[in-house]
């Protein structure tokens, strides 16, 4: 029973998305505000322990549970397992790649971009580069849409933004 309470507290902190752990760097100067649907990865990487610490689980078992959670749509659980796997195997690219996929699926594009960059940091893999490019296109399209909304209609940049967005969207459908 004593092990369960700290595990539950750590798990809740990991799922909160706004908790921070001193000394964990995300290689970003700023992140999206708490509660944002596109917030960065929770900075609780060092404290994520969905499996009992006393059992000292094997990375293969953690990965299998992460895959099962992902496949069944339990994204919060899958995220916690992949973060734990990244902590246990800090120089492996695959947990970061899987996190990128998870975040992309959830629409958390800033977090997905960060995760794919972490994957590329540890292994120059064309799949990670491909997915990073797709995420960046989506982020770019979103930024252009927002700029178009905010620019006055008579501003020459408004028309240019509209044309860029139209070209981008057409290219994405080909």
Key terms for this structure?
174 residues; disordered N terminus; Serine Threonine Protein Phosphatase 5, Tetratricopeptide repeat; elongated
Question: What's the SSE blueprint?
Answer:
Elements: H1 4-16, H2 59-71, H3 75-88, H4 94-106, H5 109-122, H6 126-150, H7 156-173
Helix pairs in contact: 2-3, 3-4, 4-5, 4-6, 5-6, 6-7
Descriptive account of the structure:
With 174 residues, this protein is mostly helical. The protein has 2 domains: 1-112, Alpha Horseshoe (Serine Threonine Protein Phosphatase 5, Tetratricopeptide repeat), CATH 1.25.40; 125-174. Helix content is 63%, strand content 0%. It is built from 7 helices and no strands. Helix 3 (75-88) packs antiparallel against helix 4 (94-106). The longest helix has 25 residues, at 126-150.
* Oligomeric composition of the shown chains: single chain
Distance between the termini: 57 Å
Order of helices and strands: HHHHHHH
| Overall body shape | elongated
Secondary-structure-derived class: mainly alpha
Report the top-level CATH class of the largest domain. Answer: Mainly Alpha
Strand portion: under 5%
Low-confidence stretches: 1-49
Strand tally, please?
Answer: 0
CATH topology of the largest domain: Serine Threonine Protein Phosphatase 5, Tetratricopeptide repeat
């Amino acid at each position: 029973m004593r092990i369960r309470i700290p595990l539950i507290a750590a798990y809740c902190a990991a799922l909160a998305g706004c908790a921070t752990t001193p000394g964990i760097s995300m290689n970003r100067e700023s992140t999206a505000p708490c509660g944002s649907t596109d917030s960065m990865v929770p900075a609780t990487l060092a404290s994520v322990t969905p499996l009992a610490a006393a059992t000292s689980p094997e990375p293969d078992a953690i990965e299998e549970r992460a895959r099962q959670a992902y496949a069944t749509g339990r994204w919060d659980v899958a995220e916690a397992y992949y973060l734990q796997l990244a902590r246990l195997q800090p120089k492996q690219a695959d947990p970061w790649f899987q996190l990128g996929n998870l975040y992309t699926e959830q629409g958390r594009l800033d977090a997905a971009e960060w995760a794919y960059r972490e994957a590329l940091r540890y292994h120059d893999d064309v799949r990670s580069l491909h997915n990073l490019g797709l995420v960046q296109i989506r982020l770019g399209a979103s930024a252009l849409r927002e700029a178009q909304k905010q620019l006055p209609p008579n501003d020459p940049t408004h028309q240019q933004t509209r044309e860029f967005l139209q070209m981008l969207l057409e290219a994405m459908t080909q």
